[in-house]
């Protein structure tokens, strides 16, 4: 709590920041973490730690230890955000695309990739992650299967983020060859983020993707998208079911889920921090 109060005082000392934070509710895509700190405690928890914000909807006795497996301090999250802000010497931008591994750029810096069913909200999520770098072009379409290539985005010298084509409905014809080769051959891949629609939960295609990641021994984590579109009851139900599945039936899955909303930007700050951590760019202060 003292840490939170200190960060709020630092943020509140800047009058320009206060003017921007007053408009945060109408323009969340422009909100920095310092501005989010201006929110009241309950709202702040829901925006930064949405999984913990669900605890009051759970039945007594439900084990929520996995909700805090990744528990960065507010200072950690604030530091991680700097990686997603471009500057003169820190360029964040689209780098290249590839339809086959022999076309993929040979990069040595750490890499993370995002995979999921067509229309799960993958491109919208990546756009939200890069919201502090508005010049980065992430194409978002209402048409399922819009992404047909592996799209590489360089975050300065620190890491690369890869947007993979969606699987399932309208997946590219050569999806399996493209993605399987990437997952098996990419030596600098640090974590795969598997997106699941929080409204509908697991689908058959998701289980196929999980089996592939488990077979290849790829470390991965579940990201639950579109939490703004799910009722609290449905969201809690799907969270518990997916959490139970991860605990009982997976080996390479990180035990904590990451619920996010690309519209309200809930969970985006925590996900940025996790990316910074798994790519080796954020030694945790409290670890």
Describe the structure.
It comes from Gopherus agassizii (Agassiz's desert tortoise). Keywords: GTP-binding, Magnesium, Metal-binding, Nucleotide-binding. GO terms for molecular function: GTP binding; metal ion binding. Its cofactor is Mg(2+). One of its GO terms (cellular component) is mitochondrion. By secondary structure, the protein is of the alpha/beta class. The chain has a single domain (1-279), classed as 3-Layer(aba) Sandwich (Rossmann fold). 36% of the residues lie in helices and 14% in strands. It contains 11 helices and 7 strands. The protein has helices spanning 2-12, 15-21, 33-36, 41-48, 50-53, 74-81, 122-129, 175-185, 204-216, 232-249, 268-278; strands at 92-98, 111-116, 150-155, 159-163, 189-197, 220-225, 258-259. It has a 7-stranded mixed beta sheet with strand order 1-3-4-2-5-6-7, with helices on both faces. Strand 6 (220-225), helix 10 (232-249) and strand 7 form a beta-alpha-beta unit. Helix 6 (74-81) packs across helix 11. It is globular, with a radius of gyration of 18 Å. It starts with a helix and ends in a 9-residue tail after the last helix. Residues 6-30 have low confidence and may be disordered.
């Amino acid at each position: 709590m003292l840490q939170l109060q200190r960060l709020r005082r630092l943020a509140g000392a800047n009058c320009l920041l206060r003017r921007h934070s007053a408009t945060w509710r109408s323009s969340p895509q422009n909100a920095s973490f310092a501005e989010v700190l201006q929110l009241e405690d309950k709202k702040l928890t829901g925006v930064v730690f949405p999984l913990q914000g669900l605890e009051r909807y759970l039945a007594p006795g439900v084990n929520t230890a996995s909700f805090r497996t990744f528990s960065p301090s507010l200072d950690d999250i604030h530091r991680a955000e700097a990686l997603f802000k471009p500057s003169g010497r820190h360029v964040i931008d689209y780098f290249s695309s590839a339809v086959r591994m022999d076309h993929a750029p040979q990069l040595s810096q750490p890499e993370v990739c995002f995979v999921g069913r067509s229309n799960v909200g993958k491109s919208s999520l990546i756009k939200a992650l890069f919201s502090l770098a508005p010049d980065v072009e992430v194409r978002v379409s209402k048409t399922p299967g819009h992404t047909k290539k592996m799209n590489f985005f360089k975050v300065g010298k620190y890491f690369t983020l890869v947007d993979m084509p969606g699987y399932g409905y309208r997946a590219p014809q050569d999806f399996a060859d493209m993605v399987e080769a990437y997952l098996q051959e990419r030596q600098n891949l640090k974590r795969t983020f598997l997106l699941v629609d929080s409204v509908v939960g697991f689908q058959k295609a998701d289980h196929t993707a999980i089996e592939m990641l488990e077979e290849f021994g790829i470390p991965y984590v579940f990201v639950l998208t579109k939490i703004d579109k799910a009722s609290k009851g449905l969201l809690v139900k799907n969270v518990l079911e997916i959490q139970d599945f991860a605990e009982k039936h997976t080996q390479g899955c990180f035990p904590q889920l990451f619920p996010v909303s690309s519209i309200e930007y809930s969970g985006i700050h925590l996900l940025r921090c996790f990316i910074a951590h798994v790519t080796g760019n954020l030694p945790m202060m409290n670890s």
